[in-house]
UniProtKB/TrEMBL annotation:
Alphabetical list of InterPro entries matching this protein: ASHA1/2-like_C, START-like_dom_sf
Family of this protein: Belongs to the AHA1 family.
Domain of life: Bacteria
Membrane-spanning ranges: none
Pfam family, one: AHSA1
Protein name, entry field: Activator of Hsp90 ATPase homologue 1/2-like C-terminal domain-containing protein
Domain named Activator of Hsp90 ATPase homologue 1/2-like C-terminal: residues: 29-140
Organism of provenance: Cellulomonas chitinilytica
């Protein structure tokens, strides 16, 4: 049973502030519709950037569907939220995204999907396609 975090790193051309803003404020633009309940009905996604804020997928038929809660936020530096996407609500995992100054004014963005336990580890295998989603984020951030 693999309980290790899923970790990805991206070297972005933009500074940490814009990289953070694209991640949080433009998630509806970079989130891949295939990773929603109904790709044809995907309207967008939202992160409310405060502790206790919701992480939502928006569907044309079902409305806003919460799949996480913001646990920590440090603007331009760090975002942590729970995740029940593709999992049961009783055993959420945790997503941590950090934004550190990188080379030549860019950003090192580190994405970690962790919080795997014996109760939710069976769901971990569903998350092998994070690069497909996050590559879209990186392209949008690099264009900022």
């Amino acid at each position: 049973m693999d309980l290790s975090p899923i970790t990805l790193e991206y070297h972005l051309r933009c500074a940490p502030g814009p990289a953070f803003d694209v991640y949080v404020q433009q998630i509806g633009r970079w989130w891949h519709p295939d990773y929603s309940l109904d790709p044809a009905g995907f309207v967008g996604a939202t992160i409310e950037p405060w502790v206790g804020g919701r992480v939502l997928l928006e569907d044309a038929t079902r409305g806003a569907l919460q799949w996480g809660e913001v646990l920590e936020v440090r603007s331009a530096a760090r975002l942590v939220h729970s995740s029940t996407l593709g999992q049961t609500r009783e055993h959420p995992s945790r997503i941590t995204v950090t934004f550190q100054p990188g080379a030549e004014g860019g950003t090192l963005m580190t994405f970690e999907h962790a919080g795997w336990t014996e109760e939710n580890a069976v769901d971990r295998r569903k998350f092998t396609e994070w690069p497909r989603i996050l590559d879209r984020y990186a392209a949008l951030a690099d264009a900022a």
